[in-house]
């Protein structure tokens, strides 16, 4: 596709307003990413994807749609990609991470809604994101109240299917989630016109497991004493993993992991010795939300791990591949996904266990617990998280923020002070 | 060698000079004005005119305008500096520092002379010096006049935490004919409540509690804080220089 | 001190851009992939560009000639990168 403008026009986008978004991205990407030194060469792939974020992948998706394939837009790490891929569908993440989309979301949502939801709704209604135009069907879930109600509004504009998340993790909840996965599979089959067979599902389970393993390999290198990749670069890989073809994602992540493993052997670090190692926990950071990582990494810290949906929650734990019947496979899928510990569950003590484990594995000096403004779930759970960390003797800083620039200086002061406190 | 700490706050700019023996030999406060760059430059001129040889100076800048001090050797946040300064001023290694600044309020927990934990208000200016300033302006008073007037008031409450809404509450109280001292009382109560609720988010140790920053001279505010925190809150005149002194102490660690 | 210039090599498609990037890398010429600044992108569809420091641009031009690499244009801009700007998108 030589000219993306034509493609955007055909997608019914608001070209004039979209242009405003295109104008700010190069500056922000330059400030955040190109200001770094000695980045891994394999980041080239992700740099290329960002440089044409609304061009390359959307064009690929449209080519696939021409062949009759269907694109499903998702908003949450609980929606099982395996099911869609087994029916020859394509998954693309649809979370909005830019303040640019917030005003269009605020036109229909209360201002006291989390920026991720406002931006996601705004990106659709404002017609300024090709991915939101391309998706044949949106798949929502009932993880939080803000999302539940937002789906009703989006559902007036685009075909919408909502999966009902359990709120607890008892055995009967896992069974209930398995039934939800089966219901979803039926909807996907109907939309794509393809039948899901045990063979196809086994194949898609394998593909997604391989992608998880590749992402985990990259994270594994961040446990080393030398830090071979910045948190910002790792975050970029994770953010784009939601949009990319899963096999290519695995291939690129493995290539990056090869380079990082070599760097660890050679003792190559992208940070000076003594840079404080930070674990970021909390709410997801949808592309292009790089604010917190950037402030941390320009204030004497290095992010070595993210316990977020755009971090370990996305790839930890695999789906058991030994199932041979659809029932066994759906059960295995349900079990793996119910092992993700989101604050939407109660009780959710496993998340605290995860955070303590990650803090140890990644040898962190401190934890920054971040919650997107108006996310009641993570904000409330922050109390328990901070308490547990303090009891374990791990310094923690709680941060509440959104996508605006307004608090950048305030955040910098707090984060610098926190890093000074780490000695 | 001279060690200079420069604290460019949102309202006032302070500096402190320590000599080789770490004795405070000079201190100064002036309004920050609209340009922290110009304020920093004027401080540099004053220091040069005071006869301190610049080649014998190590300096650290702090405060929200710390990046606007190009001649400083280093920048350190006001949280670390207030902590260090308070330890030095009160000669105590375990304490809680409450710094009510122009645009933010910090509660800092100090253990073994080091910052152990801190909380800082969010973007909003409730419970800060700015809040007091806005309310004092509305009532045609200076902040310290407001604080002293508050001592004679009572029985009035401002329920809004937001500065903008609280200001309209004050205006409607004035409109209703409420006594000035009662409104002043409500303003001070509101600040102290906010600071106390901020402190409750952190486990305070049993050491000293001291009040630093621009409001440390408002004795009535200190008394109300004692009451709210159920602790003796202490302060001394030099506490408004805690940030600058802390910065100067940080400068003693600089090697060139 | 004169302001440092950054050179942006623009392309009609990202495939051309990635091809030249590989040539430059093999020749040991440092370059980075950057979204093309809007002010120089014009009506060009492709948003990918290669960013080079002033001192490497002549070697890059030589490399383009030797490999008959395709590109659209080369534009110079004062350095746009500022890690402490505090502006996000």
Description:
The complex is a heterotrimer of chains A (423), B (256) and C (89). Chain A has a single domain (41-268, 275-421), classed as 3-Layer(aba) Sandwich (Rossmann fold), CATH 3.40.50. Chain A is 54% helix and 10% strand. Chain A has helices at 4-10, 15-34, 44-51, 56-66, 81-86, 102-106, 115-125, 130-134, 145-154, 171-192, 198-221, 231-241, 246-266, 291-297, 312-315, 326-337, 349-361, 376-391, 408-421; strands at 71-74, 90-93, 137-141, 160-163, 276-282, 301-307, 366-372, 396-401. In chain A, the strands form 2 sheets. In chain A, strands 2-1-3-4 form a 4-stranded parallel β-sheet, sandwiched between helices. Chain A has a 4-stranded parallel β-sheet with strand order 6-5-7-8, with helices on both faces. The longest helix of chain A has 24 residues, at 198-221. The N and C termini of chain A lie far apart (53 Å). The model of chain A has no long low-confidence stretch (mean pLDDT 97). Chain B is α/β, with parallel strands linked by helices. Chain B has a domain at 2-80 and 243-251: ATPase, nucleotide binding domain (Nucleotidyltransferase, domain 5, 2-Layer Sandwich). Chain B has a 5-stranded mixed β-sheet with strand order 3-2-1-4-5. A 5-stranded mixed β-sheet of chain B has the order 8-7-6-9-10, sandwiched between helices. In chain B, strand 6 (95-100) and strand 7 form a beta hairpin. The radius of gyration of chain B is 19 Å and the shape is globular. Chain B starts with a strand and ends in a 5-residue tail after the last helix. Chain C is α+β, with helices and mostly antiparallel strands. Chain C has one domain (5-78): Alpha-Beta Plaits (2-Layer Sandwich), CATH 3.30.70. Chain C is built from 3 helices and 4 strands; from the N terminus they run E-H-E-H-E-H-E. In chain C, strands 2-3-1-4 form a 4-stranded antiparallel β-sheet, covered by helices on one side. The longest helix of chain C is centred in the first third of the chain and has 13 residues, at 14-26. Chains in contact: A-B, A-C. Chains A and C meet through helix 2, helix 3 and helix 19 of A and helix 1, strand 2 and strand 3 of C.
């Amino acid at each position: 596709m030589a000219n993306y403008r034509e493609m955007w026009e055909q997608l019914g986008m608001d070209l004039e307003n979209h242009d405003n978004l295109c104008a700010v991205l190069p500056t922000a990407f330059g400030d955040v990413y190109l200001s770094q030194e000695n980045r891994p060469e394999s980041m080239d792939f992700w740099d290329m994807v960002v440089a044409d974020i609304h061009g390359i992948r959307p064009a690929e998706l449209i080519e696939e749609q021409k062949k009759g394939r269907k694109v499903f837009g998702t908003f949450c790490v609980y929606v099982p990609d395996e099911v869609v891929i087994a029916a020859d569908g394509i998954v693309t993440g649809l979370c909005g991470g830019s303040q640019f989309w917030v005003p269009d979301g605020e036109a229909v949502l209360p201002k006291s809604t989390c920026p991720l939801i406002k931006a996601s709704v705004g990106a659709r209604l404002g017609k300024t994101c090709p991915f939101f135009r391309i998706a044949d069907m949106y798949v929502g879930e009932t993880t939080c109240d803000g999302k539940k109600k937002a789906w009703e509004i989006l559902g007036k504009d685009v075909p919408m299917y909502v999966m009902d998340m359990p709120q607890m993790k008892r055995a009967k909840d896992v069974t209930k989630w398995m039934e939800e996965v089966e219901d979803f599979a039926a909807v996907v089959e109907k939309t794509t016109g393809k039948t899901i067979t045990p063979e196809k599902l086994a194949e898609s389970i394998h593909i997604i497991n391989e992608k998880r393993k590749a992402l985990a390999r990259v994270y594994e290198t961040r446990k080393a004493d030398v830090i071979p990749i910045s948190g910002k670069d790792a975050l970029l890989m994770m953010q784009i993993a939601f949009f990319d073809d899963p096999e290519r994602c695995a291939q690129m992540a493995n290539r990056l992991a090869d380079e990082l493993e070599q760097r660890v052997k050679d003792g190559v670090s992208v940070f000076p010795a003594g840079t404080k190692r930070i674990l970021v926990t909390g709410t997801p950071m949808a592309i292009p939300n790089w604010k917190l990582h950037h402030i941390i990494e320009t204030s004497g810290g290095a992010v070595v791990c993210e316990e977020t949906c755009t971090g370990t929650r996305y790839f930890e734990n695999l789906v058991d591949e030994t199932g041979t019947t659809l029932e066994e496979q759906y059960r295995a899928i349900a079990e793996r996904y119910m092992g993700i510990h989101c604050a939407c569950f109660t009780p959710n003590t496993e998340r605290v266990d995860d955070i303590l484990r990650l803090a140890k594995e990644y040898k962190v000096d401190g934890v920054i617990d971040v919650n997107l403004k108006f996310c009641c779930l993570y904000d409330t759970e922050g109390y328990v998280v901070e308490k547990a960390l303090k009891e374990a003797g791990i310094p923690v800083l709680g941060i509440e923020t959104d996508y605006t620039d307004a608090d950048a200086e305030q955040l910098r002061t707090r984060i610098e002070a926190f890093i000074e406190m780490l000695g | 060698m001279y060690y200079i700490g420069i604290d460019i706050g949102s309202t006032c700019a302070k500096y402190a000079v320590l000599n080789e023996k770490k004795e405070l030999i000079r201190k100064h406060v002036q309004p920050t004005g609209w340009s922290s760059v110009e304020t920093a430059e004027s401080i540099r001129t004053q220091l040069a005119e005071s006869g301190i040889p610049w080649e014998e100076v190590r300096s650290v800048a702090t405060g929200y305008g710390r990046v606007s001090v190009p001649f400083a050797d280093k920048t350190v946040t006001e949280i670390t500096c207030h902590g260090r300064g308070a330890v030095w001023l009160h000669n105590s290694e375990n304490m809680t520092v409450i710094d009510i600044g122009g645009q933010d309020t910090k509660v800092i927990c100090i253990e073994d002379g080091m910052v152990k934990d801190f909380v800082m208000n969010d973007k909003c200016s409730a419970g800060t010096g700015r809040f007091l300033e806005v309310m004092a302006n509305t009532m045609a008073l200076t902040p310290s006049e407001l604080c002293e007037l508050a001592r004679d008031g009572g029985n009035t409450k401002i329920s809004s935490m937001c500065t903008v809404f609280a200001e309209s509450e004050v205006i409607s109280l004035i409109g209703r004919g409420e006594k000035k001292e009662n409104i002043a009382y409500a303003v001070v109560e509101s600040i102290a409540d906010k600071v106390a609720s901020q402190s409750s988010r952190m486990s305070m140790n049993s050491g000293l509690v001291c009040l630093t920053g621009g409001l440390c001279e408002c004795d009535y505010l200190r008394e109300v804080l004692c009451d709210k925190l159920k602790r003796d809150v202490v302060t001394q005149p030099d506490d408004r220089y805690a940030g600058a002194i802390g910065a100067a102490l940080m400068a003693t660690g600089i090697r060139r | 001190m004169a302001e440092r210039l950054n050179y942006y090599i623009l392309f009609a498609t990202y495939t051309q851009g990635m091809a030249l990037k590989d040539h430059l890398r093999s020749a040991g010429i440092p370059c980075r992939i950057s979204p093309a600044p809007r002010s120089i992108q014009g009506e060009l569809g492709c948003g990918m560009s290669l960013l080079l420091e002033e001192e490497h641009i002549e070697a890059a031009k030589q490399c383009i000639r030797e490999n008959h690499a395709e590109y659209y244009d080369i534009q110079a801009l004062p350095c746009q990168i500022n890690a402490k700007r505090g502006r996000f998108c």
